[in-house]
Amino acid sequence: MNLHSLLCARAEDDRPIHVVIIGAGKFGTMFISQVRRTPGMHLLGVADLSVDRAKAALTETGWPKEQVSARSAAKALADGTTFVTDDGEALINAGGVDVVIEATGVVEAGVRHALAAFERGRHVVMVNVEADALCGPLLAEKAKAAGVVYSMAYGDQPALIHEQVDWARSCGFEVVAAGKGTLYMPEFHASTPDTVWDHYGLSAERAKKSGMNAKMFNSFLDGTKSGIEMAAVSNACGLTPAPGGLVFPACEVDEIASVLIPETDGGCLHHGGQVEVISSRHENGEDVERNLRWGVYVTFKAPSDYVERCFSDYGLITDESGKYTALWRPYHLIGLELGVSVAYAGLLKQSTGCARDFRADVVATAKRDLKSGEMLDGEGGFTVWGRLMLAVDSLSLGAVPIGLAHGLKLKKSLRQGNIVTWSDVELAGNVSGSLAYTLRREMEGTIKPTIGVSKRDAKQSPEDMKAREE
After folding, report:
1. Domain edges within the chain
2. Cα–Cα distance for residue pair 225/217, rounded to 1 Å
3. Per-residue pLDDT tens over the stretch 311-369
4. CATH number for the domain whose boundaries are 360-453+460-466
5. What are phi and psi of 251, to 5 degrees?
6. Are strands 174-182 and 274-279 parallel, antiparallel or unpaired?
7. In the 3-class helix/strand/coil scheme, how is 57-70 assigned residue by residue?
């Protein structure tokens, strides 16, 4: 609650938090726009494979030319300027760095940069939720062993959900569900980079001119990003997905306390303590009037009749019974809020959420009928989307995580909706030789999955989900 005063004190003492960011995309640029206005923080460096893009991010957000150092990170540390480079690992190793922000969005790069930062004693704020969903529990363990912080990125929805869950539990409430809103329709699972812009109301030419990445935007639309983000929340908050994955119920914000509760009490949840994503569009194609498309929520339960009366006394929106209510935040500001995580790590040596166990996973699922010999093209592509499921079921099936489902050749044909398993693909050297693959296999061998819901209680078993073509 006192971050700003602590930052001001660091500024007055001329002891700013020295932070570097790797990845100057939209998220990174939004942070860059705010860090220069934040007391007690020094953006020591920006790394991007395109130095021109990194420089453009600084220019676009109003950084004066004299603030950008062209010489070295050492000079930037000495005179308070910002060094720009295409070498992320060199920036991690530069003297004086306190916090590393990993914002590349590339799984392999995220894992590599995180491990390098831990080795150098740097705190890591992991914007790269794709890497976190793949092997975040093990990265968190390695950070702890190194005595540094590994953190979700505040401003991104998973960290904001974590904050709401933590608030509810700190107040003594039982968390029933938590998650976010999004635009969802069942047919979106088949969306490809060629069809994605129609759903956003844009032409391909307009999107290209605006620098918008079709695969990235498609991963938001086809359900993959929702699965990835809810896996991160599940592993950080001890909440579990439904056995069949995300349901995407459509409801208005005033209905959250009635819909995002267990089926046994009139809601849609398989169980209490579930992660779930709310759709901003009904199945008939009509948009929900008061939707939560850009926001996050938590539902929680009154532990006593007295607390139920308190809910009523203070005007909380509840379900019919009066025992369930909800708190929501309508928007998230992405990189504009990222400084909160940097401050928590740099000042308090705390995270704004990180994986605590291996509870949920995101697995590659066929977007269409796939033929033997086809190559998988990963997140947001033409062949697969990422389905959220229990980690114990993912490992039991031998499912291919969505973060590794690229550059793999199918050995057999798969029907639309089938989960891709390691037995279905040829393990190519570009995958098996990657650091991300190595770390994932290490995690599978050292961290036992947390069982959230018994398979006996599942409406859809892993065998049903696999639905193998004979």
Report:
1. 3-156+335-348, 158-184+223-331, 360-453+460-466
2. 9
3. 999 999 999 999 999 999 999 999 999 999 999 999 999 999 999 999 999 999 999 99
4. 3.90.1210.10
5. -160, 160
6. parallel
7. HHHHCCCCHHHEEC
